[in-house]
Amino acid sequence: MLRTLMAFVLAAAAASAAQAQQYPDHPVRVLVGYAAGSGPDIQARTVAHQLSESLHQSFIVENRTGANGTIAARAVATATPDGYTLLFSSSSISPTPYIYKHLGYDVLTDLKPIATIGELDGIFMLVDSKSPLKTVPEFIDYAKTHRMLYGSPGVGNELHLRAELFARKAGITMEHIPYKGASEVMNGLLSGSVQMMFVTPPSVMGLLKEGRVRALAFTGSKPFPAFPNVPLMKQYLPGFVEGSWGMFFAPGKTPDAVVDKLNGAIHAALLEPAVAKIMQRDGYMPDKRNAAETQAFFREKVKETAVAVKAAGIQPQ
Protein backbone atom coordinates (compact mmCIF):
# COMPACT_ATOMS: atom_id res chain seq x y z
CA MET A 1 0.00 0.00 0.00
CA LEU A 2 2.88 2.35 0.85
CA ARG A 3 4.50 1.66 -2.51
CA THR A 4 1.20 2.33 -4.27
CA LEU A 5 0.77 5.61 -2.40
CA MET A 6 4.32 6.70 -3.21
CA ALA A 7 3.82 5.81 -6.85
CA PHE A 8 0.63 7.87 -6.92
CA VAL A 9 2.37 10.88 -5.35
CA LEU A 10 5.28 10.66 -7.79
CA ALA A 11 2.92 10.31 -10.74
CA ALA A 12 0.90 13.33 -9.59
CA ALA A 13 4.07 15.38 -9.18
CA ALA A 14 5.27 14.38 -12.63
CA ALA A 15 1.90 15.28 -14.16
CA SER A 16 1.94 18.65 -12.40
CA ALA A 17 5.45 19.39 -13.64
CA ALA A 18 4.48 18.44 -17.19
CA GLN A 19 1.41 20.66 -17.01
CA ALA A 20 3.55 23.57 -15.83
CA GLN A 21 6.06 23.01 -18.60
CA GLN A 22 3.33 23.23 -21.23
CA TYR A 23 1.49 26.10 -19.52
CA PRO A 24 0.05 28.25 -20.99
CA ASP A 25 -1.03 26.63 -24.25
CA HIS A 26 -4.14 28.78 -24.75
CA PRO A 27 -5.30 32.27 -23.67
CA VAL A 28 -5.47 33.15 -19.98
CA ARG A 29 -8.20 35.36 -18.52
CA VAL A 30 -7.30 37.83 -15.77
CA LEU A 31 -10.38 39.12 -13.94
CA VAL A 32 -10.27 42.52 -12.25
CA GLY A 33 -13.06 43.53 -9.91
CA TYR A 34 -12.62 47.25 -10.52
CA ALA A 35 -13.49 49.61 -13.35
CA ALA A 36 -11.44 50.13 -16.48
CA GLY A 37 -8.91 52.89 -15.91
CA SER A 38 -8.73 52.33 -12.15
CA GLY A 39 -5.38 51.74 -10.45
CA PRO A 40 -5.81 47.93 -10.20
CA ASP A 41 -6.99 47.78 -13.82
CA ILE A 42 -3.93 49.68 -15.08
CA GLN A 43 -1.59 47.51 -13.04
CA ALA A 44 -3.21 44.27 -14.17
CA ARG A 45 -3.11 45.29 -17.83
CA THR A 46 0.51 46.44 -17.58
CA VAL A 47 1.69 43.11 -16.16
CA ALA A 48 -0.67 41.03 -18.33
CA HIS A 49 0.75 42.63 -21.48
CA GLN A 50 4.27 41.69 -20.42
CA LEU A 51 3.18 38.14 -19.53
CA SER A 52 1.71 37.80 -23.00
CA GLU A 53 5.09 38.75 -24.42
CA SER A 54 7.22 36.52 -22.20
CA LEU A 55 4.99 33.43 -22.09
CA HIS A 56 3.93 33.69 -25.76
CA GLN A 57 0.23 33.44 -25.00
CA SER A 58 -2.53 36.02 -24.58
CA PHE A 59 -3.33 37.21 -21.05
CA ILE A 60 -6.69 38.94 -21.47
CA VAL A 61 -7.91 41.31 -18.75
CA GLU A 62 -11.66 41.37 -18.08
CA ASN A 63 -13.38 43.83 -15.75
CA ARG A 64 -16.00 42.20 -13.49
CA THR A 65 -17.06 45.13 -11.36
CA GLY A 66 -19.40 45.23 -8.39
CA ALA A 67 -19.68 44.28 -4.72
CA ASN A 68 -16.24 45.59 -3.79
CA GLY A 69 -14.44 43.18 -6.13
CA THR A 70 -16.15 40.07 -4.76
CA ILE A 71 -17.95 39.26 -8.03
CA ALA A 72 -14.63 38.84 -9.83
CA ALA A 73 -13.12 37.00 -6.86
CA ARG A 74 -16.03 34.55 -6.72
CA ALA A 75 -15.74 33.84 -10.44
CA VAL A 76 -12.08 32.90 -10.01
CA ALA A 77 -12.58 31.00 -6.75
CA THR A 78 -15.12 28.74 -8.49
CA ALA A 79 -13.26 28.45 -11.81
CA THR A 80 -11.43 25.34 -13.03
CA PRO A 81 -8.09 25.29 -11.16
CA ASP A 82 -5.84 25.04 -14.19
CA GLY A 83 -4.21 28.47 -14.29
CA TYR A 84 -6.31 29.80 -17.15
CA THR A 85 -8.56 32.00 -14.98
CA LEU A 86 -6.72 34.39 -12.68
CA LEU A 87 -7.66 37.28 -10.42
CA PHE A 88 -5.90 40.56 -9.85
CA SER A 89 -7.01 42.42 -6.75
CA SER A 90 -5.99 45.32 -4.58
CA SER A 91 -5.63 44.81 -0.83
CA SER A 92 -9.38 45.52 -0.55
CA ILE A 93 -9.83 41.75 -0.83
CA SER A 94 -8.38 41.14 2.65
CA PRO A 95 -11.31 42.50 4.72
CA THR A 96 -14.06 40.86 2.63
CA PRO A 97 -14.43 37.76 4.88
CA TYR A 98 -15.35 40.09 7.75
CA ILE A 99 -17.58 42.41 5.74
CA TYR A 100 -19.78 39.97 3.82
CA LYS A 101 -21.67 37.12 5.48
CA HIS A 102 -22.31 35.19 2.26
CA LEU A 103 -19.29 35.50 -0.03
CA GLY A 104 -19.78 32.10 -1.61
CA TYR A 105 -16.08 31.29 -1.27
CA ASP A 106 -13.27 31.26 1.29
CA VAL A 107 -10.48 33.71 0.47
CA LEU A 108 -7.92 31.54 2.28
CA THR A 109 -8.74 28.20 0.68
CA ASP A 110 -10.59 28.89 -2.59
CA LEU A 111 -8.04 31.43 -3.83
CA LYS A 112 -4.31 30.78 -4.07
CA PRO A 113 -2.02 33.85 -4.00
CA ILE A 114 0.55 33.86 -6.80
CA ALA A 115 2.59 37.07 -6.52
CA THR A 116 2.24 40.71 -5.60
CA ILE A 117 3.16 43.56 -7.90
CA GLY A 118 4.77 45.14 -4.84
CA GLU A 119 3.67 47.14 -1.84
CA LEU A 120 2.39 50.70 -1.79
CA ASP A 121 3.82 52.68 1.10
CA GLY A 122 0.72 54.83 1.62
CA ILE A 123 -2.44 56.47 0.31
CA PHE A 124 -3.63 60.07 0.04
CA MET A 125 -6.31 61.85 2.06
CA LEU A 126 -8.02 64.18 -0.43
CA VAL A 127 -10.34 67.15 -0.45
CA ASP A 128 -11.53 69.20 -3.39
CA SER A 129 -9.17 72.04 -4.34
CA LYS A 130 -11.98 74.52 -3.60
CA SER A 131 -12.28 73.31 0.00
CA PRO A 132 -11.30 75.89 2.63
CA LEU A 133 -9.69 73.05 4.63
CA LYS A 134 -5.97 73.04 3.91
CA THR A 135 -4.51 70.88 6.69
CA VAL A 136 -5.43 67.76 8.65
CA PRO A 137 -5.79 69.71 11.93
CA GLU A 138 -8.18 72.14 10.20
CA PHE A 139 -10.17 69.20 8.85
CA ILE A 140 -10.41 67.57 12.29
CA ASP A 141 -11.44 70.80 14.00
CA TYR A 142 -14.09 71.48 11.37
CA ALA A 143 -15.44 67.91 11.57
CA LYS A 144 -15.98 68.27 15.31
CA THR A 145 -18.65 70.92 14.76
CA HIS A 146 -19.96 70.16 11.24
CA ARG A 147 -21.50 67.25 9.40
CA MET A 148 -18.77 65.61 7.33
CA LEU A 149 -19.40 63.18 4.48
CA TYR A 150 -16.74 60.98 2.93
CA GLY A 151 -16.93 58.55 0.04
CA SER A 152 -15.37 55.20 -0.87
CA PRO A 153 -15.99 52.59 -3.59
CA GLY A 154 -18.35 50.40 -1.56
CA VAL A 155 -18.62 49.04 1.97
CA GLY A 156 -15.64 47.36 3.60
CA ASN A 157 -13.01 48.20 1.00
CA GLU A 158 -9.59 49.35 2.16
CA LEU A 159 -10.41 53.02 1.56
CA HIS A 160 -13.59 52.79 3.66
CA LEU A 161 -11.60 51.05 6.38
CA ARG A 162 -8.81 53.65 6.35
CA ALA A 163 -11.32 56.50 6.65
CA GLU A 164 -13.04 54.87 9.62
CA LEU A 165 -9.72 54.28 11.35
CA PHE A 166 -8.76 57.89 10.66
CA ALA A 167 -12.02 59.11 12.24
CA ARG A 168 -11.47 56.97 15.34
CA LYS A 169 -7.89 58.13 15.80
CA ALA A 170 -8.90 61.76 15.20
CA GLY A 171 -11.82 61.57 17.62
CA ILE A 172 -14.39 62.67 15.04
CA THR A 173 -17.53 61.28 13.43
CA MET A 174 -18.02 61.13 9.67
CA GLU A 175 -20.80 59.69 7.50
CA HIS A 176 -19.87 57.16 4.84
CA ILE A 177 -21.34 57.42 1.33
CA PRO A 178 -20.64 54.21 -0.61
CA TYR A 179 -20.24 54.43 -4.40
CA LYS A 180 -19.97 51.77 -7.09
CA GLY A 181 -16.38 52.63 -8.00
CA ALA A 182 -13.45 54.96 -7.39
CA SER A 183 -14.29 57.21 -10.35
CA GLU A 184 -17.79 57.78 -8.95
CA VAL A 185 -16.29 58.72 -5.58
CA MET A 186 -14.02 61.23 -7.28
CA ASN A 187 -16.99 62.72 -9.13
CA GLY A 188 -18.75 63.01 -5.78
CA LEU A 189 -15.76 64.83 -4.29
CA LEU A 190 -15.44 67.23 -7.22
CA SER A 191 -19.18 67.97 -7.21
CA GLY A 192 -19.30 68.58 -3.45
CA SER A 193 -21.45 65.55 -2.61
CA VAL A 194 -18.73 64.37 -0.23
CA GLN A 195 -16.02 66.41 1.48
CA MET A 196 -13.21 63.87 1.69
CA MET A 197 -11.91 60.56 0.40
CA PHE A 198 -8.89 58.32 0.78
CA VAL A 199 -7.35 57.16 -2.49
CA THR A 200 -4.36 55.23 -3.81
CA PRO A 201 -1.81 57.35 -5.73
CA PRO A 202 -2.32 55.75 -9.18
CA SER A 203 -5.95 56.87 -9.24
CA VAL A 204 -5.28 60.54 -8.59
CA MET A 205 -1.87 61.50 -9.99
CA GLY A 206 -3.30 63.48 -12.90
CA LEU A 207 -5.83 65.41 -10.81
CA LEU A 208 -3.18 66.31 -8.24
CA LYS A 209 -0.86 67.62 -10.94
CA GLU A 210 -3.72 69.64 -12.44
CA GLY A 211 -4.55 71.11 -9.03
CA ARG A 212 -8.16 69.91 -9.10
CA VAL A 213 -7.83 68.14 -5.76
CA ARG A 214 -5.74 68.79 -2.65
CA ALA A 215 -3.91 66.11 -0.69
CA LEU A 216 -4.03 66.93 3.01
CA ALA A 217 -1.81 64.01 3.96
CA PHE A 218 -0.07 60.84 2.80
CA THR A 219 -0.28 57.79 5.07
CA GLY A 220 3.11 56.35 4.16
CA SER A 221 6.22 56.01 6.26
CA LYS A 222 7.99 58.55 4.05
CA PRO A 223 6.86 61.26 1.58
CA PHE A 224 5.45 60.18 -1.78
CA PRO A 225 8.23 60.82 -4.34
CA ALA A 226 6.09 62.66 -6.91
CA PHE A 227 4.52 64.92 -4.24
CA PRO A 228 7.14 65.26 -1.49
CA ASN A 229 5.49 68.37 -0.02
CA VAL A 230 2.34 66.51 1.02
CA PRO A 231 2.59 66.08 4.83
CA LEU A 232 2.72 62.64 6.39
CA MET A 233 -0.37 61.62 8.34
CA LYS A 234 1.76 60.21 11.16
CA GLN A 235 2.91 63.71 12.11
CA TYR A 236 -0.70 64.52 13.03
CA LEU A 237 -1.84 61.08 14.20
CA PRO A 238 1.18 59.12 15.49
CA GLY A 239 1.24 55.53 14.29
CA PHE A 240 -1.20 56.11 11.43
CA VAL A 241 0.84 54.50 8.64
CA GLU A 242 -1.35 52.65 6.15
CA GLY A 243 -0.32 51.19 2.80
CA SER A 244 -1.69 48.90 0.11
CA TRP A 245 -0.65 46.19 -2.33
CA GLY A 246 -1.83 44.43 -5.48
CA MET A 247 -1.82 40.65 -5.95
CA PHE A 248 -2.49 37.96 -8.53
CA PHE A 249 -4.50 34.91 -7.46
CA ALA A 250 -5.45 31.54 -8.97
CA PRO A 251 -8.25 29.17 -7.94
CA GLY A 252 -7.37 27.40 -4.71
CA LYS A 253 -6.54 23.97 -6.14
CA THR A 254 -4.36 25.20 -8.99
CA PRO A 255 -1.21 23.01 -9.11
CA ASP A 256 1.75 24.49 -7.26
CA ALA A 257 3.98 24.04 -10.29
CA VAL A 258 1.74 26.32 -12.37
CA VAL A 259 1.55 28.89 -9.58
CA ASP A 260 5.33 28.82 -9.16
CA LYS A 261 5.81 29.35 -12.90
CA LEU A 262 3.46 32.34 -12.82
CA ASN A 263 5.20 33.76 -9.77
CA GLY A 264 8.52 33.71 -11.61
CA ALA A 265 7.01 35.16 -14.77
CA ILE A 266 5.31 38.00 -12.87
CA HIS A 267 8.52 38.92 -11.04
CA ALA A 268 10.38 38.89 -14.36
CA ALA A 269 7.69 41.09 -15.91
CA LEU A 270 8.05 43.62 -13.09
CA LEU A 271 11.76 43.97 -13.89
CA GLU A 272 11.07 45.03 -17.47
CA PRO A 273 11.90 48.76 -17.72
CA ALA A 274 8.51 49.79 -19.16
CA VAL A 275 6.64 47.90 -16.42
CA ALA A 276 8.97 49.01 -13.63
CA LYS A 277 8.57 52.64 -14.69
CA ILE A 278 4.78 52.48 -14.29
CA MET A 279 4.91 50.64 -10.95
CA GLN A 280 7.51 53.00 -9.51
CA ARG A 281 5.55 56.00 -10.77
CA ASP A 282 2.53 54.68 -8.89
CA GLY A 283 4.57 54.22 -5.72
CA TYR A 284 4.86 50.42 -5.63
CA MET A 285 8.02 48.98 -4.10
CA PRO A 286 8.83 45.55 -5.60
CA ASP A 287 9.25 42.43 -3.49
CA LYS A 288 10.89 39.08 -4.21
CA ARG A 289 8.49 36.73 -2.42
CA ASN A 290 8.09 33.31 -3.98
CA ALA A 291 4.61 31.77 -4.17
CA ALA A 292 4.76 30.16 -0.71
CA GLU A 293 5.96 33.41 0.87
CA THR A 294 3.23 35.34 -0.97
CA GLN A 295 0.62 32.98 0.44
CA ALA A 296 1.97 33.44 3.97
CA PHE A 297 1.98 37.23 3.45
CA PHE A 298 -1.67 37.14 2.36
CA ARG A 299 -2.76 35.02 5.33
CA GLU A 300 -1.09 37.49 7.68
CA LYS A 301 -2.76 40.48 5.98
CA VAL A 302 -6.19 38.86 6.22
CA LYS A 303 -5.55 38.21 9.91
CA GLU A 304 -4.45 41.80 10.51
CA THR A 305 -7.51 43.14 8.71
CA ALA A 306 -9.86 41.26 11.02
CA VAL A 307 -8.53 43.38 13.88
CA ALA A 308 -8.80 46.58 11.84
CA VAL A 309 -12.42 45.89 10.80
CA LYS A 310 -13.40 45.32 14.42
CA ALA A 311 -11.61 48.47 15.52
CA ALA A 312 -13.40 50.48 12.83
CA GLY A 313 -16.77 49.19 14.03
CA ILE A 314 -17.83 47.92 10.57
CA GLN A 315 -20.60 45.33 10.85
CA PRO A 316 -20.87 42.34 8.45
CA GLN A 317 -23.59 42.64 5.82
Detailed description of the structure:
The protein has 317 residues and is of the alpha/beta class. Helices cover 42% and strands 19% of the residues. The protein contains eleven helices and eleven strands. It has helices at 2-22, 39-55, 70-77, 96-99, 136-143, 158-170, 182-191, 205-210, 256-271, 273-281, 291-312; strands spanning 28-32, 59-63, 85-90, 111-120, 124-128, 149-152, 175-178, 196-199, 213-218, 244-251, 284-285. The strands form two sheets. It has a six-stranded mixed sheet, with helices on both faces. Helix 1 runs parallel beside helix 9, helix 2 crosses helix 9 (256-271) and helix 6 crosses helix 11 (291-312). The longest helix is centred in the last third of the chain and has 22 residues, at 291-312. The chain is globular. The protein starts with a helix and ends in a 5-residue tail after the last helix.
